[in-house]
Design brief:
The chain is mainly beta. Helices cover 5% and strands 41% of the residues. This is DUF4374 domain-containing protein.
Length: 454
């Protein structure tokens, strides 16, 4: 397929035909769509591949997925080619995918285009076989056709999507096009949050709220400009939403990118009502907490751990306790832990033991064809330690900014490694021992890259 934009009006047309490109040097060749051994501890591992649109690594040519068993994923003799034989996920640009905890279901809300905002789910059946199940529903009337959404960790029951609209407010005597001194008042930020019943494809709740910062922050031109990554607390009664701050120069009415970077902030809402928003602020980390395309905050051991980005001191992992406030006694700075500068957490995922794999870039990252080079580290949330995973290949074109998915299977974490336009592999990190297993080969295509496993 050579089109750079893929639109679909019927899900009956999105299954690709053709043989599956599973190859093995052993004799005989294994079944390309295997039936996992019912007595083995196995699950599906779904690889997500983002095709190039106009530029290498942009991922705007559509998303393809392909599933293999976890046993095959661990086998370096297995080779898969999702770009040739994958299932095309409905999405105008890079799809925002989620998977069930057991790996048997893939959830998708299409991003932009004719199908933007459409929620669908699929039964994972091996190879390119993903069967639509249930009904589809559009959340576009609530949060637009390019929604930022996530699956809450409540047993695969609920998804949540969010947006924020902003309007700069000036006094009656001037306009933003002709702003004079002291004419700026504040920026009104209106947040919308919708929750979605993933099982029955129904809208559960929708609320809009006004987001306010402190009077001093607003007078200085700060406002919440982007939100993402809703996370449910351990009690199940609060929803945390990551936030990015922007700033306007009150004197000129123009954007101000040189202002002080404030403490990291999170919006706290009552759940499931989505009412009574408040904003909490970290005294440890600064910058943004909305992440990008991967889940940015996770509940572990009664607290929520959250990455921040754009911190002048390098990314931290921050902690929000059961009292729904930042725990400023918890200081975990990735620069300090790894002995690097300008760490920027791109994506991360903890296992059940409190040890996590973090995708990051730093001041030493080379500039590749699509952007800065990425790396992986193994971190321990309890000990606040981190170590770079050195036995995964790195090169300048190893681009992780759009990385989305890790698979957690007990204390093992699966990830993908492949530079833009080059072949790579699945790797499995044993978070208990730090051992890394090289798994199935990933066949790439020009300008494209892999965005994770689900």
């Amino acid at each position: 397929m050579k089109r750079s934009i893929i639109n679909f009006k019927s899900f009956t047309t999105i299954l690709l035909t053709g043989g599956l490109l599973l190859a093995c040097t052993e004799d005989p060749v294994p079944d390309p769509v295997p039936d996992p051994d019912p007595d083995a501890e196995n699950r599906w591992i779904t690889v997500a591949a983002a095709r190039m649109g106009s530029n290498p690594g942009d991922g705007n040519g559509g998303t393809l997925i392909y599933s293999i068993s976890s046993e095959e994923a661990k086998n370096p003799m297995v080779s898969i080619a999702p770009f040739d034989n994958g299932f095309i996920v409905p999405s105008n640009r890079t799809a925002r995918l989620q998977s069930s905890e057991d790996g048997n279901t893939i959830f998708n809300i299409s991003y932009a285009g004719d199908t933007g905002g459409n929620y669908t789910k699929y039964s994972v059946e091996g190879g390119q076989n993903f069967t639509p199940i249930g009904t589809e529903v559009s959340i576009a009337p609530y949060v637009g056709s390019a929604p930022r959404w996530i699956k809450l960790f409540d047993g695969d029951q609920t998804g949540s999507a969010v947006y924020v609209d902003t309007e700069h407010q000036f006094d009656d005597n001037s306009t933003p096009e002709d702003a004079s001194d002291d004419t700026y008042i504040r920026t009104e930020a209106t947040m919308g949050v919708v929750t979605l019943d993933l099982e029955n494809s129904l809208i559960k709740e929708f609320q809009e709220s006004s987001l306010a910062l402190s009077e001093e922050e607003e007078a200085n031109g700060y406002y919440i400009s982007r939100i993402d990554m809703p996370t449910l607390n351990s009690a199940g009664d609060k929803l945390y939403i990551g936030a990015r701050l922007s700033k306007i120069d009150p004197a000129t009415g123009e954007s101000d990118n040189d202002g002080e970077v404030l403490g990291a902030k999170t919006i706290v809402l009552d759940y499931p009502s989505l009412l009574n928003p408040t904003v909490i602020t970290s005294s440890v980390g600064r910058g943004n907490t909305n992440g990008y395309r991967s889940i940015n905050a996770f509940e572990y051991d009664g607290s929520v751990y959250q990455a921040n980005q754009g911190d002048p001191q390098g990314s931290h992992i921050l902690k929000i306790d059961a009292n729904n406030q930042y725990d400023d006694s918890y200081v975990f700075n990735l620069d300090d832990a790894l002995g690097i500068e300008d760490a920027y957490i791109l994506a991360w995922r903890p296992a059940e033991n409190g040890k996590a794999v973090v995708a990051y870039r730093d001041a030493g990252s080379e500039e590749g064809v699509a952007g800065a080079q990425g790396y992986f580290a193994l971190v321990d949330l309890n000990e606040r330690t981190a170590i770079k995973i050195d036995n995964i290949p790195y090169e300048a074109d190893f681009y992780l900014f759009q990385y989305q998915g890790f698979v957690v299977d007990g204390t093992d974490i699966y990830l993908t490694q492949a530079p833009v336009g080059k072949n790579g592999n699945i790797y499995i990190v044993d978070t208990e021992t730090g051992d890394v297993t090289k798994g199935a080969e990933l066949i790439n295509t020009e300008g494209s890259h892999f965005i994770g496993v689900f």
